Amino acid sequence: MARIVIIGAGISGLAAAARLATLGHRVTVCEAGDTFGGMLGQLRRDGFAFDTGPTLLTLPAVYRDLALKTGREPLEQLVELTPVDPESRHLLPGGTVLTLPNASRGGVAQALDAALGAGAGERWGAVVNRGRAVWEATRRPLLEEPLPADPRALATDPYPAAPRRGLARLLGPGAPTLDQVAARELGGDPALTALLTEYALRFGFDPRTTPAGATVLPYMEQSFGVWSVGGGLRALAEAFYRRCEQRGVEFRFGTPAERAPRGEVLLAPGPGEPTAPGRFGVLLALRGARPADAVQRTVLHADDRTAELAALFDAVPRPYPRPTVQVLRPDDPSLRPDGQHEAVTLTVTVPSQARFDWTAPGVAEAYADQLLAWTDSAGLGLRERVLWRVVRTPADTERETRSPGGAVPRPALAGAGGTLLRPANATGTPGHYLLGGGAHPGGGLARAGMSACVVAGLVGPA
């Protein structure tokens, strides 16, 4: 039996602790803050509750496996899981409204044809099929196994070449970026381009430079579905904290740690990316019942995609006033005081604290005002219903989770010469491993659970 010290009680730390304790190790988790969960925080006030980090779950199989491997109860007995349907509603430039079903690629094609015209679904489906080829090529080495000793194979984009016809033949050779996929294979259609590149933008990638293999992101979401957790995603952290306690894991809160004593195995967070984008959130406590036609996730796309990308990724970063906004409206009675109120969250990908000073006087509140004006212009009618609001910036994320710059950890992607891979879990120093969003296989709730699984496999049973 090894004595194992895990730095950080985020979801990856909880998952690793539960797995290693089940394997017979003596596990201590040191957390600098006063609670567990990391990014899976929650704000409660006046009967309202808001997740302050991720709000929806993809690839629930990761946490189903964690539940079964660390205890008798399946995940569905630990938390209430509900498929989100429809998966999302998109308010596109020009006034087009597109509603997509959950985990139904055929249904997505039909919705695209209905909203954008015959043939849109076929073009989209062809691109997502190539995303499936990326998934099949990278699932094991990029997600489920330790990073190979020679990762050069993952430095090459596995996106399969599409047929080149007509004007697409003039767009240049070589492995395409996500933007080039939109131009070559989606015909440059503004609505399909906005839909495709929103997946990259959500994870903090610039679609102008991100490899085409990022088409794996819409493939995964549209194939495996999106789920909500009753009580918010904080409930997932609470469930696995209880599982850790059942397995005898010791927690030490208010305990910063950098290294373990001699003879102990250390699991530490991977290095962050301070200049990667972060998230700006506005938590809205609203008077009035949730509208009957509301959906859980509405995506209001930017009025000018080119200007939005320039504001976010180019030399002088700034918050774009009419950006791509996710409007999250969970239909969960436990998150509101009663049926005559609604809890709504706006989230936007923005420059990190390392690239833009969100603490400057008035900046955050002024941007929240702009976002409410922008969503009202799309007919959502939120501003007039606001009882109170809480504004959250990358500076808050940095302070609460110690994520450098408040940047949200990004998933690893193949291609781009290996620059989008994350550091390996095994550091080369005996007894020292990296896990979490800053390490292989990268950020996002599902990948955090995968990182814990990989590290537990490297450590092995007691």
TrEMBL record:
What are the alphabetically sorted keywords of the record? Signal
Q: Which Pfam families match?
A: Amino_oxidase
Q: Which residues form the Amine oxidase domain?
A: 11-256
Where does the sequence pass through the membrane? Answer: none
Can you tell which superkingdom this protein's organism belongs to?
Answer: Bacteria
Note the InterPro entries from the entry. Answer: Amino_oxidase (IPR002937), FAD/NAD-bd_sf (IPR036188)
Q: Which GO terms describe its molecular function?
A: oxidoreductase activity
Record's keyword annotation contains Transferase: no
Which residues belong to the signal peptide in this entry? 1-17
Q: What is this protein called?
A: Phytoene dehydrogenase
